[in-house]
Amino acid sequence: MVNYNDIAKIAQVSSTTVSHVINKTRFVSPETKKKVLEAMQKLNYKPNLLARSLATGVTHTIGLVISDIKNPFYPEIIQGVEELAVKSDYNIFLCNTDYDIEKGLKSIGALIRKKVDGIIIASSQADKFLFKEIVESTIPFVLVDWNENKINADSIYFNFESGIKEAVEYLISLGHKKIYFISGPKDLKTAKIRKNNFINIIKKYENNNISYKIIEGNHKIDGGINAAKEIEKENPMPTAVICSNDLTAIGLMKTLQANGIKIPDKVSIIGLDNIMLSEIVSPPLTTIELERYLIGKTAIELLLNRINSKDIPKQTRYFQTKLIIRESTTIAKNL
Amino acid sequence: MVNYNDIAKIAQVSSTTVSHVINKTRFVSPETKKKVLEAMQKLNYKPNLLARSLATGVTHTIGLVISDIKNPFYPEIIQGVEELAVKSDYNIFLCNTDYDIEKGLKSIGALIRKKVDGIIIASSQADKFLFKEIVESTIPFVLVDWNENKINADSIYFNFESGIKEAVEYLISLGHKKIYFISGPKDLKTAKIRKNNFINIIKKYENNNISYKIIEGNHKIDGGINAAKEIEKENPMPTAVICSNDLTAIGLMKTLQANGIKIPDKVSIIGLDNIMLSEIVSPPLTTIELERYLIGKTAIELLLNRINSKDIPKQTRYFQTKLIIRESTTIAKNL
DNA sequence: ATGAAAGCGCTAACAT
DNA sequence: ATGTTAGCGCTTTCAT
What we know:
2 copies of one chain form a homodimer. By secondary structure, chain A is of the alpha/beta class. The first copy, chain A, has helices at residues 4-11, 15-23, 30-43, 49-56, 74-87, 101-113, 128-137, 160-173, 189-203, 221-233, 246-258, 276-280, 292-308; strands at residues 61-66, 91-96, 118-121, 141-144, 154-159, 178-182, 211-215, 240-243, 268-273, 286-289, 316-320, 322-324. In chain A, the strands form 2 sheets. Chain A has a 6-stranded parallel sheet, sandwiched between helices. The first copy, chain A, has a 6-stranded mixed sheet with strand order 7-6-8-9-10-12, with helices on both faces. Chain A starts with a helix and ends in an 11-residue tail after the last strand. In chain A, 48% of the residues are buried. Chain B binds a DNA duplex through α2 and α4.
């Protein structure tokens, strides 16, 4: 491994000077600079960033914590984070907790000890231990959709209410009067919030002859499949269903279709997330969108801000959701 | 930052002893060990892995290079890699080249200088520069689907032939006589290979009255959509189409359906990749599967082997593909 | 305009 | 059974 001493020897200067020409951190006469650069060239010098980090206390590395790489929610978030990270000369450590606290703790603990400059926690998990570990480390961090409103930290919140409101009002404008909601897993905060947003909004219309009901799902395809069975039992069936996520909506849609129930003619369906799949199913799914790429990008922006100036006040960003109208919704036929 | 000296001072021992109790690297009497451990506890000591790595030359960190995080091919690969990596006490740096050589070079160059212990290249890109950079670094690496048969390196190859053969023979057994193939982008090696595998196999049946044709696609949905138009022009239309990937197959299927062509009654369709989507579309897609999770797991196994014993012979693993029969294929009606 | 030397936190050969 | 010391490759203060 060639190092400053090797270069210094050949260039006949001190290793201090080598450091200074490499980092442009003080004036070096053109001649000596030239000698140094030539020596570097000749030896094909590659800096050891580990040593530099140990000396400077800065690693140009950040950690990104997610809970399930297979969840279609994440790829665009990762892309947003990674793209700006690389542009800003950072590498990213990916930690997939897999909903496993032990595993998360292990790999994130290692990141902390590897002195990452910051961490983005987008695992939407109430892993208190993990959180404690990070806070104690004094490493800058950003929370994405953490939903603990009282936490004083750089955070990104999702406002599902805006999109859900649009969805409900859109359905009402199409004449729907019986609107169901399929929820996510009941211990998942983001699912609870989505459900409560729905309830709060639709309650305002209850005296307008609008009725609703919540069916429990699990944010997976089979949650939608099971919900379909319950919905078919209803008499009359709801003419519209909003789902806590797209996978649920797709499971629901496929099952109803398989049982001869036309979508959207008989039942209008709205999803949430706007995963790639939602465009591709037939009919294409009307859904509520979160701008995931932008969320990732914003997360790293907040983190870099924090890294570069530790004492600015904590920042918060809200992401509105919005309705994307496709073909799984139409005028209610029950008028 | 508390370090060995702080601990040593409190425990009244030398920092060497501290190191040895932490690493269990030589005998320390129970009493002094106890003193050291108590001091560590008291100071809430956390090791600085950067310093340790600088001293040992080992970082317990590996790099994973992919080309497009949004490609549904990758999440399971990443999962396979990450899972075993964490279990083996490694963290992973994720590099998404985004098909951008500059970007890839930049972030991978940084990884090398950050002294990763190894790199998995699953970017299926002929980025010669990138490759050169890695080889020169002498860091162990594993190639996934690199398709440069002459390279002497730990590698994982995909054998598309086995699955494509199954697919072709399955279609023939169903009575299909006119079988088309929609290819991927013509500059992508894996796409070329898939296409050539198809051609080689079907040629064997040409004198059995089986005819074929290649239509160019691009491994994206719209490639399938465009191919649908060409296929509809044919007279008679092929009764079966094999696609170079699932997205193409889905684009094709959706378009044909939209134009009133029943799948599989009129045209049988087979995809390749078995992405999650392929189960969910309707009808569920018959497809050729690659075991991606296992591939990821195998990649890191090879890498860890290499890291742990630099001088074993280069290893190679072949992954067979196999046909998964779902509902997008049926008996040919042209008999 | 350049160098000497200490230090970042840890490891490990060499002593005793 | 434990300590002294040099060293990993780099940065940076203090001198000159």
